[in-house]
């Protein structure tokens, strides 16, 4: 089936035509632009696959002719790995640069390093010789703005000045980000994952992965994260990586001319993006497989693995965090977990699922409001207002003032003897003589209680503000804010369990595993489990989530708690709605995305869905040997269909094949330029044998057999829609013709299928906007 379809799409120049080599076979030369698609249209996976098979066959045949052709065929075989190498290196480099820039600009809101302006606070204090261990956060080279301007570092005046400048810098960064996005690359906003998913399912969005989008997204991502808004850089890094993939695809004709092959590269690029975002190469491959890819052959799995490896290796070479780790949150816990702790872990899973469901409902409602009201007309104002509110509310609380990544890092941390954080302000037992890394559970001191209050406020703040932040016209990821919500909740639960175990170690649940003076409960582990639960609740990831989390934190023996939390959060969130945040945004934007996970259980038939319906005009068709060039041009001008079925005659309506609109347009245009005698009254032939010119005065006929697809996909009118949906999903079709005993009855497009599914789920079928 594939071969037939392809040999009629202009991919093979001389196999099918056995007519004499006269003028009408000018199409033996493959003409330009055939096989490319319009913007906002779906690709035909089957056709792309068979075109690639034809190309491969040609190369293999030629490689036996000479050494030069053999070398060319080897280069062609290696080009896939070369592209992966380039994607990995560029993605890793960009991620390293983004990390360093975000670090510096986040600290710039609070102060500046006098010894070197381009140092972040941490780098500044590392290089200083005057930093003591007790006051390791204070060093003379690093000065806050108030101290630099007025000479005073303490007091109300200094606080107000620091506050004012913090808000000012935040507003400046976010204003720059939204302005750059608006002026240069409107596609650089948002997280990009919903669109990447849609593109990988075979949709074309021109410019979404372009050079400008890559440049602007990289720059504005740094500005947006530095402005202190409740957003992360992880989702947008997947978009950046896919832009790199698209950039390198254009260097190799194998990928630039075949949309199906290009999508294999983009799947691997998405894996590289997650690999550098979290320092989790294997998690990246699984993320691409579980969350974003539509078509993921085994070959793509190996290539994704290689791209993710190269990207992680490049990032490690840059070493942006200065700790020889790929991530900011690396932790080492010293105590195992106990069976009784599964109860709080599962409760955190329930919390994650509830927060995920709440977030999706709230965010989608807000985004829909943005689309339908005046709010959508003022994106710059919206970003400025949200940034202003975020900065004003975030500054007084030390946990919201710092960058979200640092906050998560502190919440994950285990309290060792060297920690100076407020969260580690426990009351020490004076006659304790134990090894440093195994400190027993201790009663909480005043610092812990004040930290708990601040964390509770931070939790409410993050839950509310993230709903309004995600989806604004700036690059915004969702992974980090979701993890922050979960980590705060987890740490609070962890401290509560720890104090219960300390004060009530004779209770039956603690008796078996928590002796007095032992280190039983690790609050940081609860933060980690909470983070996984909330991220799972929002995105509905499971396998890739758990792998990302243990790669991220290095906590290998905590896989079971993470799995328990991830599964629970998915179950709870699924009870409120099957779609994750990305699927919800795809629905909101009306993209034609057939989700593999959606089940179609209604008992409708192809005849209920096909066009034309009873009240509509008949199907626009071409006949095999009685349509003139003028008729075809009128049909193309008066309709906006993607293609036309070709029948023997209007009376018999026996189906012969299907011809794409774009190829028809290009073929007629090329024929008028290159072939003498083709005029408006020339008859267009789709037949096998050469048309005979009856009289000398008759215009020259035009033979377009070459562009006719002789094996269009057909179903009968009584095929259940369940089967039709499956065919569309698994073969990636654009359209499918409906016949009865060889007679053409109608056509079903991907858009018709999606609209029918929406109607069956009591949703608005008009929300599916593209085809």
From TrEMBL:
Entry membrane topology: Multi-pass membrane protein
Molecular-function annotations in GO: antiporter activity; ATP binding; voltage-gated chloride channel activity
Transmembrane intervals: 78-102, 163-185, 205-225, 265-289, 301-318, 338-360, 380-399, 451-471, 478-497, 525-550
Alphabetized InterPro entries for the sequence: CBS_dom (IPR000644), CBS_dom_sf (IPR046342), Cl-channel_core (IPR014743), Cl_channel-4 (IPR002246), ClC (IPR001807)
Subcellular localization(s) per the UniProt record: Endosome membrane; Membrane
Keyword Calcium: no
Domain CBS, residue spans: 610-674, 708-766
GO cellular component: early endosome; endosome membrane; Golgi apparatus; plasma membrane; synaptic vesicle
Location (main, coarse): membrane
Matching Gene3D superfamilies: 3.90.1280.20, Clc chloride channel
Keywords attached to this entry: Antiport, ATP-binding, CBS domain, Chloride, Endosome, Ion transport, Membrane, Nucleotide-binding, Repeat, Transmembrane, Transmembrane helix, Transport
Stated family: Belongs to the chloride channel (TC 2.A.49) family.
Official protein name in the record: Chloride channel protein
Record organism: Oncorhynchus kisutch (Coho salmon)
Gene of this entry: CLCN4
């Amino acid at each position: 089936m594939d071969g037939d379809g392809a040999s009629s799409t202009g991919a093979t120049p001389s196999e099918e035509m056995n007519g004499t080599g006269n003028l009408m076979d000018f199409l033996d030369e493959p003409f330009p632009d055939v096989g490319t698609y319009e913007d906002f249209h779906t690709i035909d996976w089957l056709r792309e696959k068979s075109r690639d098979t034809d190309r491969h066959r040609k190369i293999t045949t030629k490689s036996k002719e000479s050494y030069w052709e053999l070398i060319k065929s080897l280069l062609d075989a290696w080009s896939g790995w070369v592209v992966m190498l380039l994607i990995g290196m560029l993605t890793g480099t960009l991620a390293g640069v983004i990390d360093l820039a975000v670090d510096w600009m986040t600290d710039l809101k609070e102060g500046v390093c006098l010894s070197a302006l381009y140092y972040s606070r941490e780098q500044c204090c590392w290089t200083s010789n005057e930093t003591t261990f007790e006051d390791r956060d204070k060093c003379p080279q690093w000065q806050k703005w108030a101290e630099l301007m007025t000479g005073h570092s303490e007091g109300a005046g200094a606080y107000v000045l620091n506050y004012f400048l913090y808000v000012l810098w935040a507003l400046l960064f976010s204003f720059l980000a939204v302005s750059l996005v608006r002026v240069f690359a409107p596609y650089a906003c948002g997280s990009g994952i919903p669109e990447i998913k849609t593109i990988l399912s075979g949709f074309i969005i021109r410019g979404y992965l372009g050079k400008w989008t890559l440049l602007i997204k990289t720059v504005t991502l740094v500005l947006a994260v530095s402005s202190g808004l409740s957003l992360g850089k992880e989702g947008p890094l997947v978009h950046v990586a896919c832009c790199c993939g698209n950039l390198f695809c254009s260097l190799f004709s194998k990928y630039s001319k075949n949309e199906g092959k290009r999508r294999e590269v983009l799947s691997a690029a998405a894996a590289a993006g997650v690999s550098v975002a979290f320092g989790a190469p294997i998690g990246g491959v699984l993320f691409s497989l579980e969350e974003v890819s539509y078509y993921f052959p085994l070959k793509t799995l190996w290539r994704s693995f290689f791209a993710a490896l190269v990207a992680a290796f490049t990032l490690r070479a840059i070493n942006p965090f200065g700790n020889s780790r790929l991530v900011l949150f690396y932790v080492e816990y010293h105590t195992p977990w106990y069976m009784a702790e599964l109860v709080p872990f599962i409760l955190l899973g329930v919390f994650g699922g509830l927060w995920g469901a709440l977030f999706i409902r709230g965010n989608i409602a807000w985004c829909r409001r943005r689309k339908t009201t005046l709010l959508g007309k003022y994106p710059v104002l919206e970003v400025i207002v949200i940034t202003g509110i975020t900065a004003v509310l975030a500054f007084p609380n030390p946990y919201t003032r710092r960058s979200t990544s640092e906050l998560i890092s502190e919440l994950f941390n285990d309290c060792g003897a060297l920690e100076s954080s407020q969260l580690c302000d426990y009351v020490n037992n004076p006659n304790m003589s134990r090894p440093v890394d195994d400190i027993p559970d201790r009663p909480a001191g005043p610092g812990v209680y004040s930290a708990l209050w601040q964390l509770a406020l931070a939790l409410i703040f993050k839950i509310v503000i993230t709903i309004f932040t995600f989806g604004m016209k700036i690059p915004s990821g969702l992974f980090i804010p979701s993890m922050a919500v979960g980590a705060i909740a987890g740490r609070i639960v962890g401290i509560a369990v720890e104090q219960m175990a300390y004060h009530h170690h004779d209770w039956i649940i603690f008796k078996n595993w928590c002796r007095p003076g032992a280190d039983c409960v690790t609050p940081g582990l609860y933060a980690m489990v909470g983070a996984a639960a909330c991220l799972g609740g929002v995105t509905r990831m499971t396998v890739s989530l758990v792998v990302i989390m243990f790669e991220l934190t290095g906590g290998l023996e905590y896989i079971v708690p993470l799995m328990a939390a991830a599964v629970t959060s998915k179950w709870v969130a699924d009870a409120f709605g099957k779609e994750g945040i990305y699927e919800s945004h795809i629905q909101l934007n009306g993209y034609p995305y057939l989700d593999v996970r959606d089940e179609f259980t209604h008992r409708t038939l192809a005849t209920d869905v096909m066009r034309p319906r009873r009240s509509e005009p008949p199907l626009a068709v071409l006949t095999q040997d009685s349509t003139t060039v003028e008729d075809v041009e009128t049909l193309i001008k008066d309709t906006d269909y993607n293609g036309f079925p070709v029948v023997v005659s209007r009376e018999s309506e026996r189906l012969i094949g299907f011809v794409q609109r774009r190829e028809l347009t290009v073929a007629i245009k090329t024929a008028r330029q290159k072939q003498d005698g083709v005029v408006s009254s020339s008859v267009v032939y789709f037949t096998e044998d050469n048309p005979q010119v009856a009289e000398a005065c008759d215009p020259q006929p035009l033979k377009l057999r070459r562009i006719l697809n002789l094996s269009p996909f057909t179903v009968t009118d009584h095929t259940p829609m369940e089967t039709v949906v499956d065919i569309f999903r698994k073969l990636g079709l654009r359209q499918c013709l409906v016949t009865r005993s060889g007679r053409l009855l109608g056509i079903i497009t991907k858009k018709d299928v999606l609209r029918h599914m929406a109607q069956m789920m009591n949703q608005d079928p008009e929300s599916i906007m593209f085809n």
